[in-house]
Design goal:
Elements (H helix, E strand, L loop, with lengths): L1 E5 L6 H13 L4 E4 L10 H7 L6 E3 L18 E3 L3 E5 L2 E6 L9 H16 L4 E5 L10 E2 L2 E2 L3 H10 L3 E3 L10 E4 L2 E4 L6 E4 L1
Parallel strand pairs: 1-2, 2-3, 3-4, 6-7, 7-10, 10-12
Antiparallel strand pairs: 1-13, 5-6, 8-9, 11-12
Helix pairs in contact: 3-4
């Protein structure tokens, strides 16, 4: 399965159009958004119209989208996995949006038992999707500080999903790192094609 992952487009319609075109030209089977597709909801309807290229889209809200404003009710191709799990084909997605610049992330901590149980019952690849990056990685560095979430890192260390996709820290767009066998990616607004 080929998945075009991206994050932090912040209502940039040119970036959105490039991603939609790339999803088609590179033969993606699904699109994945790790949050902040919009700038506080600006142009959100137009953004999701542009991204409707006949593929399922796995989505979590970032800190610029309202968690309660579920865009998947308006656009049926969008699968909002905020605080949920979802299987597409053989791939299990685990999602938690929001988050800020703190190593504490209570909303994610509460999901850890649910996500561990889902992985234990699943026989196939797993992708963790969070807006906040895992703590102490190449994805959470801001200047000399690590601003990622400790519970995300702890979960990755213990559960070892195949991929962990996050965004939020714009300076780290396009960076990758590893925690054990887990490949951690900030795909940024240009996107990264993941093959599982």
């Amino acid at each position: 399965m080929k998945i075009l992952a991206f994050a932090d487009t912040h209502s940039d319609l040119e970036a959105i159009r490039k991603l939609a075109s790339r999803a088609k030209s590179e033969g993606a089977d699904a699109i994945l958004c790790a949050g902040d597709v919009s700038e506080f909801g600006d142009k959100i309807g137009q953004i999701f119209e542009e991204l409707d290229v006949g593929l399922p889209m796995v989505y979590i809200p970032g800190n610029h989208e309202e968690e309660g404003a579920d865009i998947s009710k308006r656009f049926k191709y969008v699968k909002n996995i905020h605080k949920k799990t979802l299987c597409i084909g053989s791939v299990l997605f685990l999602g938690c949006g929001g988050g800020g610049f703190s190593k504490f992330f209570t909303a994610f901590e509460r999901l850890i038992p649910v996500f561990k149980d889902a992985i234990a019952k699943h026989n196939g690849p797993t992708i963790l999707v969070t807006h906040a990056p895992p703590y102490k990685t190449r994805l959470d560095q801001m200047g000399r500080m690590d601003v990622g979430a400790e519970p995300i890192r702890k979960f990755i260390e213990e559960a070892q999903p195949d991929y962990a996709v996050s965004g939020h820290i714009h300076e780290n767009a396009g960076r990758k790192d590893k925690i054990g066998k887990t490949i951690c990616i900030n795909p940024g607004p240009k996107g990264v094609l993941i093959e599982v």
